[in-house]
Amino acid sequence: MTGQRAAAEPYTTRFESEVTSIDGREVWLERSYFYGESGGQPADRGTIGGVEVADVQYVDGEHVHVLAEEPSFRVGKRVLCSIDWSFRMYCMRAHTASHLLYGAGRRLLEDLGYGGFDISEERVRVDLKTSTEIDDELLLELDTLVNRAVWESRPVTWEDEPVADARERDDIAFNEATEEGAFRKGRVRVVTIGSEDDNGNTTGLVRRDGGARDLWDVAACGGTHVRNTREVGPVTVLGRSNPGEGLTRIELAVGPRAIDRREAEKRVAFASRRTLDAPLESVEDELARVDAEREELTEQVRTLRRQLVETRLEEAEPFERDGLEWVATTVEDVDSNEAGEITSDAAGDVADVVVLAGDAGSQYAVVATNGSVSAEAVVADLTDEFGGGGGGSTSLAQAGGFDATPEDIVTALKA
Prior knowledge:
Elements: H1 5-8, E1 14-23, E2 26-29, E3 46-48, E4 51-59, E5 62-67, E6 78-83, H2 85-108, E7 113-119, E8 124-129, H3 136-151, E9 156-162, H4 163-167, E10 183-184, E11 187-193, E12 217-220, E13 235-241, E14 247-254, H5 256-276, H6 283-315, E15 319-321, E16 324-331, H7 336-346, E17 353-359, E18 363-369, H8 375-386, E19 389-392, E20 396-400, H9 406-414
Parallel strand pairs: 16-17
Antiparallel strand pairs: 1-2, 1-6, 2-5, 3-4, 3-6, 4-5, 7-8, 8-14, 9-11, 10-11, 11-12, 13-14, 15-16, 17-18, 18-20, 19-20
Helix pairs in contact: 2-3
């Protein structure tokens, strides 16, 4: 047998075994059906001789059971061991769900490879190597395929075979870095999610009619799995991220957390339907229309705001400073970037030097010139007088964080 007994007999959750060694809180058993943390799957929970198991590690082919407290039983004693079935079953479902996702990826993604895996109580993480960019539409397709495979009640089987033979098969996904528990003494444990109608006989690769079998996924794996995909239950793809170059991380929720996520998504969908007063199937189109209208209105507001500032500059009374014509005024509801565009366009037309002072969360001043004086030097004078900091070029500069109001800045320039 390759790997851990728990992987070979995942439905075994109560057994008796002889205690072979004890070191403080660490206990070794003659045989154990506890799953030791491995390959991204957490250790089983439960009790040994009535004492809570805090952790299980699989070291050099042996299970090291770490108890929550030192046991009262001694070496040679036979003890009753009980595995927390709800957590064991959650891990079985979650691990199988990760294989379902990889199988879905086989059908949708190019240059697919396996990059990592992890089960937590909140979600399942699968890292994929692929040249395909996974966008929202692909996420939805992956979610659909995973849940369809659950619905199709595909059998899940596991068996050992020689590593050399397994490597000759191009349908097996290998990742020895995270699945070292699948390998032992020249043999590898292969988990297969079969076709809809093969009645559990998933080892063959050719149908009776000579065509390729509809196997969902085949992978070297040392984890625990359910016997049929229907046991996985509800699965929801939560999202994606990029944990490193060449990797895309997909996160799933399984069981109650998947149901909770579905409920939250439905609430959003129904709220959108009510707000838009549209059938659910039309919400996406209505949202696109509303978004386009919003962008158009935003651009109109920006244009009107710019026109207002330009009018204010034209109506501002010019003043002379250092032999040059200056215009300085305050603005509202305009950020420093937009103010910079306006002053750049106005410099040389409205005046030699144009200054806009505003407050977009904090005070700022933007200075643009026609080159007759350095805008950066003007900004330096302002920061010397009012604090803050800034910089720029000869023709355009800005500063912020002043200990003064925009009105104070304009007044100081005119003094």
